[in-house]
Amino acid sequence: MAERSFKREVEKLRLGDGAVFRGEGILAVTKALLQAGVAYVAGYQGAPISHLMDVLTDANDILQELGVHFEHSASEATAAATLAASVHYPLRGAVTFKSTVGTNVASDALANLASGGVTGGALVVVGEDYGEGSSIMQERSHAFAMKSQMWLLDPRPNLPSIVRAVEQGFALSEASHTPVMLELRIRACHVHGRFAAKDNVRPRFTLADARENPVRDASRIVLPPASYLHEREKVEQRWPRAQRFIAEQALNEWCAADAQDFGIILQGGMYNTTARSLELLSLADAFGNSRVPLYILNVTYPLVDDEILRFCAGKRAVLLIEEGQPDFLEQNLHAILRRAGLAARVHGKDLLAGAGEYTAAVLIQGIVKFVELYAPRLLDRERFPSIARAPETRPAAVAAVDAQVHARPPSFCTGCPERPIFTAMKLVERELGQHHVSCDIGCHLFSILPPFNIGATTMGYGLGWAGAAAFHAPAGGKRALAFMGDGGFWHNGLTSGVGNAVFNQSDSVLVVVDNSYTAATGGQDILSSQGGNPRRTTRLAIADAVRGVGVKWVRTITRTYDVAAMRDTLKAALTSPERGPKVIVAQSECALNQQRRVEPLERRQREQGKRVVRERFGVDADTCTGDHSCIRLSGCPSLTIAPNPDPLRTDPVAAVLDSCIGCGLCGEVAHAAILCPSFYRADVITNPSAWDRFTARAAHVWIAFLQRRSDRRLARALAAAGHGA
Amino acid sequence: MAPRAITVAILAMGGEGGGVLADWIVSLAESAGYYAQTTSVPGVAQRTGSTIYYLELFPEAAVRAAGQEPVLALMPVPGELDIVVASELMEAGRAIQRGFVTQDRTTLIASTHRVYSMTEKTAAGDGRVDSQALLEAGNAAAKRFVCRDFARIAGEAASVISAALFGALAASEALPFSREQFEQAIHGGGVGVASSLRAFAAGFAAVSREGATPVVGGARQPGPFPLDLAARIERDFPPASHSILLAGIARLADYQDALYAARYLDRLTAIRDADAQYGAGGYPLLRETGRYLALWMSYEDAIRVADLKTRGARFERVRREAGAGPKHVLRIHDFVYPRVGELADILPAPLGRWLLATAWARRPVEWFTRRGRVIRTTSLSGFLRLYVLAGLRRWRRRSLRFARENRKIEEWLALISALAPEDYALAREVAECPRLLKGYGDTHSRGGRDFDALMGALPRLRRLDDPAGRLRKLREAALGDDSGGMLAEALRQVTA
C-alpha cells in the first residue's frame, strides 16, 4: 500500500478523444502509454517515477479492461529484462525506474536487449534524478544510451510534448528495431499541466498471442557470431533508420532558424528554462517566440547530422545548452561540424557552468555572455533582470539572514521505527566505542546526519553488507556493522550481502531494518510486507530467508522502540564469542504508513462511539533543565524546544508537539539512557468505558483532596514568611 | 505591456501541506480563467526537509489573443517572484537568502512561528537563531511583508497551516481573484472542507486587521512570593536586580519554605555590596549570582520531582496539552528512574553515607532500582508513592545532598566575593558557571565534573591575560558537546 493514493486521479486515464486531461506529468505518461496500445508495463519505484508505479497500481482495473499486464519488478534489472517480450513479438512494452541508479542496475539487461534489438516498441522511461533536491550521485543516463546504442528522448517539459514523446518513442523503436529511453527530469515528472486526450488503445497483438504461438530467432540472441553481427547492424542499419525517422517525423524542433547568424542548440528538457531566460532578456516573448534561432533536441541521441549542419550553416557560432557532464553532446557537435568542414564556433561549457543543474540564473548569465560576443546590440542592459545585473550589495538587514538560516536536511519522520535503532546504536557506542558502519540506501541512511552521525559509506541499494565485505574480523577483533533496509534486502541484498557473507565466512554484523515497505520510495509493498495484498504475495519473513541461505546467528526484534532490547541485541552481536555472519532483523511498521492505515480507522471508531486510546508524550517544563540530551538521542520532529517558562532559566526546555503519535521512544530513551524524569505519557481515552470512568473518578476524589492540602501548605509557607525572615 | 506569468513560490517543510496549498492555487486559477502550472522537487525532502513548490499562472485571455500557448518555467528565478509564501519564519529567511524576495514586486506571506532546526534543537544550551533579525530582513527585502502566527491561527481553528496561509493570500489581494473564488477552491478539494474554511477565514481576518509586526517572545512572570521578603528586596536591593530576586524568592519558597527564601537574600547581601563597590553600575554580578544561586539552592532531587509531578496545576496543564476534554478520561504515566545514589541523597546525611559505603545494604536497593519505572500518577497508588516522597521535604535540610550542595554553594559564593575586588569581570564569569549544573543522572554528574574542572583551572587562568574571556570560552566548550571532547581540548589550549 503506497504512501499516496491515486484512486481519484486514475479515473482521468479513462478520458477519450476530445477531453482535456489535467494533472501531473507522471500521470500523463501513464495515459500516453495506454493511448499507444502498450501490452505490458513493469518497473521499480524510486523518485521521481515512484508515482508512475503507484498510479499503475491504483489503475489495475483499467489495465485489466485493456488487457495490459503490470508488474512490480524485483529490481530494475528485472524490469529491463521484462522487455525481452518485445524481442521476437510485436508487443509494445514499457519499463520505468529511477536513473542513473536504476539504469546502473538494469544495464546488463539493457545491453543484451539493445544488442539483439526489438520487434515491438520497447520504451524505458527513466526519471532523471539530477539537480537540486536529488538524492543520488550526479550522473547522466545519456552515457547508457551511448554505450548500448539505445535512442534517448529528452522532450520539452510540458504535457503535450511528453505525451507525444511516448507515442513517437514506440514508433521510433519499431522503425529502428532499437529500445528507446525516455528521459524525464524530476520537475517534469511532477509538473501539473494539461493536454488533449485520445482514446485508449487495446494492444493489437497480445501477450496471449505470443504465449500461444512462441517464436525464436537465434540471430537475436547475444552469442557469437550473432553478437558481432549485432554491432554492425547497429551502426549500418539501425542508426541510419533512426536518423531518417527522427528527421521525417520532425521529432526535433526549430524556432526562428534563420533570424540571426548565431543560434542556440538545446536539449528539449532545457527548453522552458531557456525560453524563460530569453524572455527575461527581452529576446523572446512569453509564448516562446524567440529572436535568437533555436534548434531543440527532443532526441538527444542520436544527433541527426543533416539537421545539425543545416542549422549551423551560415552561422558564426552556436551555444549548446547541455545539462550535466561529461559534455557528450558538445564533443559530438564538434565532430559533426569539423567533419563537414563547417566553421561555426561551438560554445557550451566554456560560457555555462561546467557542472551542476542549469538553473535560469546559470542560463541567463551564459546567454548574456554568448550574445555579447556575437550581437551585443540585441542586449538592452536597462531592462536586464536583476539576476543578470552585477550583484548589488544587500542592505545589512537583508544580509543578516545568512546567519539565521540553517540547512534542513531530511530526517526520520515523527514516530519512525528506525530512529530507536540508531538511538540504541548511540548507547552501544558509549559502551563499546565506535565501529565501522557500512550503510545502504533507504530512509535509514538519514543516520549519517545529525543527531546520530552514524555510518561511513554507502555503495548502493542492497549493498550495505557488501560494503563491509573487506572488514572480516579476526578472533577477538572489533566487528564491522552493516545496515540494510527490507527494500534493499529483497532487491539484491539477500544474495550480494547475506549470501556473500555466508560463503566467505565473514565475521561481521548486519542489521536489516524491516519496516514492511520500501518506505523511502513511498511505501510500496515487498515480499516481507505485513499487509495482505490481493495481487501480490507478501508476509514472507526476512529471518527465514536469511536462515535459508545459511546464517546461524539470527535475532529478530519485533518492536524496535524497545531501545534496551535493541541495545542489548546489538551489543550481543558485536561481542558474541560465536564466529560467523550475524543478522539482526529489526521490525516495526513504517510510522508514516501505519498512521495512514490507523488514523482513518480510529476516526471512524471515535465517531461510532467506540473506546479509543490516544497516546502522546509530553515534557514537564518545570523539571526539564534544558540540556537537550533527549533530543540528541532522538531527533524526532515532534520533540523540539520551547522558550523556558522559568524566569530564571535562559536555555529553552524540551517540548513535545501535538504531532506526536506516542511511539514511546521518548520514554524508552529516558529509561535506557537514564536521562531525566521530565517525560510523561498522556493516554487520552475517547468514549471511555464505565470502568474507566469509575476508576478515574475514585482516584480523583482522593488525589484532589491531597492536592488541595498541598496548596494550602504552600499558601501558609508564603504567608508565614514574616516570622521566618 | 507584454503579458507575462504571475509567479508564486511556496517554501514549506515536508508534511506541512505545501502541496495542498499549491493544488488549491492551481484549481483556483484554472476555474478563474488562467493557465496554471505547478512543480516541486519532493524526493527525500518530503521527509522533514525544506521543499519549494513553484507555480506560474497565465491569463487565458492573453493566450486567446496571441493564439499561442505560453511557455511556463519550472523553477523560480531569483528576483522574478510576485508572491512568496513561507510556512515558517526560517523558511522565509531562506527565501530571502535565495533572492526570491525583492522590493520591486514580491509580496512575502510568512508565518512567524518557529519550527526549530536540528542545529538549534541539539545545542546543549541555547542554539536558537534570532527571530527578530528574520522579521527585520522580511521588512527590508519585501515589497510587502505579511506576517502572523498562522500556525496558532490554524491551530485555534483546529485545522492545518496551509488553509490559514491560503486565507492570508486571499486577504493580501496579491492575486487577481475574489474571496469567493478562493473558498470555492477549498470546496473543490473535498477533504476537511469545514475546518479548512474556518482556518481560511481566520487567516483572512488576521491579515485584514491592520497590525504591527508581532513582537517575538514575552515577559515571563514569577509565581507568588512571600510579601515581606518582597518588601525587603524593594528596600535593600538595587532596582536592577528586583525581577531576578523576586523570581528567586518565589522559587525557593515554593521549593522549601519562606525561611529558605530568606536565607537566599542573606547570602546575596555580600555580593550586593561587592557589586556596588567594584561594579560599573547595573549590578550584573548581583543579578547573575542571584539567578544561579536560586537555581542551585533549588537543585532537582527526587523530592522536588515528586512534588512537581503531583501538583493539581500540573494535572490541569497536562490535560490542556494533551487536548483532553471533560468527556475524556486522562491517564498520566511518568517515566522515572531513581538510582541508589539519588535515594541516598534524600536520606539523612549519616544514613545516606552509610548506605553508599555498605555493600550488603546497597545491593538490594540496587536490585530494586535496576530498571526505570513507569508510574501512573493519575492512579491513587501511583500518586501516593510520589506524594509521600514529596512529603520528605520537611527533612530535606538534613539530607546528604543538601549538605553537599550547601558546601559547594558556599565555596562558590566565597570565590565570587574574593574575586570581585581583584577582577570584577572574572567574578562575573564565575557567577555564570553553575549554568553547567543541569540535568539528572549521568548528565548531572558530567556537568558537575565540568564545573569542577573550570574551577580547578582558575588559578592557572589568573596567571594569563584575559582570564574572564578564557573562562567564558571554557564554559562554552563544556556546553558545546556532551562527550567532553571540546572542553578537554579547550583546557589543553589554556594550559599550553
Question: Can you walk through the features of this model?
Answer:
The complex is a heterodimer of chains A (725) and B (496). In chain A, 38% of the residues lie in helices and 16% in strands. Chain A contains 25 helices and 24 strands. Chain B is an alpha/beta fold and 496 residues long. Among the domains of chain B are: 6-208, Pyruvate-ferredoxin Oxidoreductase, domain 3, CATH 3.40.920; 438-496. Chain B has helices at residues 18-31, 60-66, 89-97, 118-122, 131-141, 150-156, 161-172, 179-189, 193-208, 227-236, 242-255, 258-278, 284-297, 302-309, 312-321, 340-346, 349-357, 359-368, 380-390, 400-422, 424-432, 441-462, 467-480, 485-495; strands at 6-13, 34-40, 50-59, 83-86, 107-111, 144-148, 329-336, 373-376. Chain B starts with 5 loop residues before the first strand and ends with a helix.
In short:
Chain A has 725 residues and is α/β, with parallel strands linked by helices. Helices cover 38% and strands 16% of the residues of chain A. The mean pLDDT of chain A is 94.
Tags for this model:
heterodimer; A: 725 residues; alpha/beta; Rossmann fold; 4 domains; seven-stranded mixed beta sheet; six-stranded parallel beta sheet; B: 496 residues; Pyruvate-ferredoxin Oxidoreductase, domain 3; six-stranded mixed beta sheet; elongated
Overall tally of domains of chain A:
4
Uncertain runs of chain A: none
Can you give the helix content of chain B as a percent range? 55-70%
**Care to count the β-strands of chain B?**
8
| Most strands sheet of chain A | 7 strands, mixed
Ends of chain B: how far apart?
A: 70 Å
Count every beta strand of chain A, where a strand is a DSSP E run of 2 or more residues: 24
Shape of chain A: globular
Question: How would you classify the helix and strand content of chain B by structural class?
Answer: alpha/beta
> DSSP strand (E) fraction of chain B?
5-15%
Mean pLDDT of chain B: 92
Give the oligomer, counting copies of the same chain as homo and different chains as hetero: heterodimer
Tell me the major beta sheet of chain B.
6 strands, mixed
Quickly give the CATH architecture of the domain at 6-208 in chain B: 3-Layer(aba) Sandwich
- What is the CATH level 1 assignment of the domain at 6-208 in chain B? Alpha Beta
Radius of gyration of chain B: 29 Å
Q: Please state the second-level CATH architecture of the largest domain in chain A.
A: 3-Layer(aba) Sandwich
Mean pLDDT of chain A, as a whole number?
94
Pair with the biggest interface:
A-B, 132 and 144 residues
